Amino acid sequence: MESSKVLVLYAHPSPHRSEVNKQLFRAAKQIDGVTVVDLYHEYPTYHIDIDKEQQRLREHDVIIFQFPLYWYSTPAILKEWQDLVLEYGFAYGHDANALHGKLFFCSLSAGGKADAYQSDGYNHFTIRQLLYPLEQMASLTGMTYLAPFALFGARTAKEDGRIQLHVEKWRRLLRALVAGQVDIEQANQVDKLNHYVKQHLMGEER
Ligand SMILES: Cc1cc2nc3c(=O)[nH]c(=O)nc-3n(C[C@H](O)[C@H](O)[C@H](O)COP(=O)(O)O)c2cc1C
Description:
- The chain is α/β, with parallel strands linked by helices.
- It is about 35% helix and about 15% strand.
- The protein has 10 helices and 6 strands; from the N terminus they run E-H-E-H-H-E-H-E-H-H-E-E-H-H-H-H.
- It has helices at about 20-30, 40, 50-60, 75-85, 125-130, 130-140, 155-160, 165-180, 185, 195-200; strands spanning about 5-10, 35-40, 60-70, 105-110, 145, 150.
- It is globular and about 50 Å long.
- It binds flavin mononucleotide (FMN).
- Flavin mononucleotide (FMN) binds next to loops.
- Flavin mononucleotide binds near residues 71 and 154.
């Protein structure tokens, strides 16, 4: 299988207070073939360099938004990034195919527990449903969308000792993506990418 270049667009407004995403960010930076961009660090005043971001997109095969869930959505800079970077003529519209065939998904953490993100749960919707605008953004721009890779109950993850395993799953997922070893059809059958990683990538070290 062909190897892929992976782009992680990381958005955390208070990274110094992060317990979960900080560690995912560090782990991703250490993997060959993965480019990690810290959007709030690079653009503290939200003056996003559109040409630079579009070039980054062209140069990668897998695009990942990594963020803590804020008000059931992304932190603001990822919305601004979409509004500015995904221009007509580049990402969509007549003859625009810069993103066609790329893979897109979200890697997120949420304070709420997993069972709160159900139709009969506290938050009424699943995480995949809440992220439908991003799923449709991927569809409109010709990207293949995968379900989110998510850690729930993020505020107690550290004291519960759940971060380490999640970071290890993240490493395996990124390495498999770089190596072109993620089976898209199988990965498409789960409601959270975590399940795919657990079932297919947590065996023996590759
Ligand atoms: C402004 C704000 C909005 C938040 N909104 C949500 C939310 O809608 N749903 C949720 O489950 N958690 C929400 N949280 C909790 C964060 O998702 C949680 O603290 C974060 O994922 C922890 O990751 P970190 O350790 O990397 O900061 C919110 C937190 C803040 C500060």
